[in-house]
Amino acid sequence: MSNEIETSLLIIILDVNPVQRIIKQETRILTQCLDSTIVFANAHLMQSSNNQLAVIACHSHGAKFLYPCEDALEIRQIDGQYEKFTMIELTVRQQLQKVINEITSNKILNGESLISGALTMALCYIARLEREKIAGEKLYSRILVITASNDSATQYMNYMNIFFTAQKMGVILDVCSLDQELTLLQQGCDITGGNYLKVPQLNGLLQYLLWIFLPDPNVRSKLVFPPPVKVDYRAACFCHQELIDIGYVCSICLSIFCKFSPICTTCHTVFKMPGPIPIKMKKKKKNVDIVH
């Protein structure tokens, strides 16, 4: 018999930016998302006593661990509820209230949440647990992003670095969009082998979380899921941070521009004619074709 211990680590990134469109329209949606997230997190822990959990909140000014945290609460059993479930729920709610108080105290708010920063924190946390795991322990890690923010091309390079780092680390990225299609995060799910879903109805958020994102990646191929979306693999230009169909690529640093420039603004290389190589961005995989 094998003495290997299998641990499934789930890191949930919850976008709590108060200027998200659906939250501005109905503030109770954030409470509904939090309730569903906590139930989903507890369901993950119920699957095995070895499973681990982390929760990160992100907004337009940064990201913070809600659980685990240094000042986590120690709770005794309440009404027959498993102590760990109670501790996680109260800790997450208490820490989130602190985060929201910090957000509302800031004068400047914008609609761009720092999801890439939260993803970076999650990968660093996974790397630390990989170093600290005991002999014979096998750690399977995945990240779930729950957000209603817009797709942000300004974080394009950060996203690409994160996606390929996660792929190399064997970390699965799942994304649950509450409002609209997210092109860049779709690419991350496709690159890492995760699931992407735009929730059709917010009232059924918990059901979608349990159906699409609760099963471990190694059993998902045996389940029936919604058909995968077509991934838009267009790149974002470095000059305007917008997705483009045709652009120019610097042959030195591979920066992408929507218009020709004799000098690369990233590495400051001076080009001789014809300059950077123009490429056409396809909306599917293997998206680079040389345009003669």
Written overview of the protein:
It is found in: Nucleus. This is General transcription factor IIH subunit 3. Belongs to the TFB4 family. 34% of the residues lie in helices and 20% in strands. Strand 5 (172-177), helix 6 and strand 6 (196-198) form a beta-alpha-beta unit. The protein is α/β, with parallel strands linked by helices. The chain has a six-stranded mixed beta sheet with strand order 3-2-1-4-5-6, with helices on both faces. It has two domains: 5-221, von Willebrand factor, type A domain (Rossmann fold, 3-Layer(aba) Sandwich); 234-276, no CATH class.
Write the layout of secondary structure elements.
Layout: E1 5-15, H1 21-25, H2 28-46, E2 52-59, E3 62-67, H3 83-105, H4 115-132, E4 137-147, H5 156-169, E5 172-177, H6 183-192, E6 196-198, H7 205-213, E7 246-249, E8 256-257, E9 277-281, E10 288-290
Parallel strand pairs: 1-2, 1-4, 4-5, 5-6
Antiparallel strand pairs: 2-3, 7-8, 7-9, 9-10
Helix pairs in contact: 2-7, 4-5, 5-6
What's the gist of this structure?
GO terms for molecular function: zinc ion binding. It is found in: Nucleus. 34% of the residues lie in helices and 20% in strands.
